[in-house]
Amino acid sequence: MALSLDRIIFVALITLAIAVTSSLGRRDKSDIEKDLRDLCSQTNRTKECLSVIKSELNTFQDTDGSSKGVAGVVIDLAIAKAREIHDDLNRLYGGSKDEDLKFKYITCSKNYNDANRNLELVKKMLDSNRNYRFIAVEINDTVQELKGCILEFSKDPFDPAHIRDRNKEFGLYLEIATIATNRLLQEKNRN
User: Fold this and answer.
1) Looking at CB atoms within 10 Å, which of 9, 27, 48, 85 has the fewest?
2) What is the DSSP letter of 24?
3) What's the pTM value of the predicted model, to 2 decimals?
4) CA distance linking residue 145 with residue 112, whole number of Å
C-alpha cells in the first residue's frame, strides 16, 4: 500500500513539474488574443484582420506570444498567401488565350515571385535575430511589388479571375505584417 501511494505521489509530482515547466515563459491565451485584437485594431480593415487572425489562432498560441513570435507567424501567413496567388497567376497565364490578360498575369506573377522572395528574407532576418533594421525595407519592397500588380489591373476593368480582389486580400496580409514587424522593431529599439 505504501509503495503504491509513493508511486501516485511520484506521478503527481512529475505531472505537476511538466505542467509548470511547459507554462513558464508562455503568455496566457487571453493575453495573446488581446494583443492580436490590438494589432488588428491598428489596421484599416479590423474585421477582416480579425477573421484572418482567428482562423490561425492556434498557430499564434503555439508561439510564446512575443512580438517576434507574432511577427513570425504573420510573415508565414503572408508567404503562404503570396505563394497561393503566385500559383494561381501562373495557372491563369497558362490557361488564357487572351494576350492582354496573359501579359497581366505574367507581370503580376513576377511581382508576387519578388514579393515572396522579400518575405522569405524577412523570415530569415527574424529567425537569425539580426539585421532587424532591414525588415522594414523588405516589407516596403513587398508593398511596392503589390502596387505593381495593382497598377497592371487598374488599366482595364476586364478582370475575369478577380485578381483585384486577390491583391486586396494580400494587401491586408502585408498591412498586418507591417504593423507586427513595426511593433517588433519598436520593442528592439527600446531595449
Assistant:
1) 9
2) T
3) 0.83
4) 7
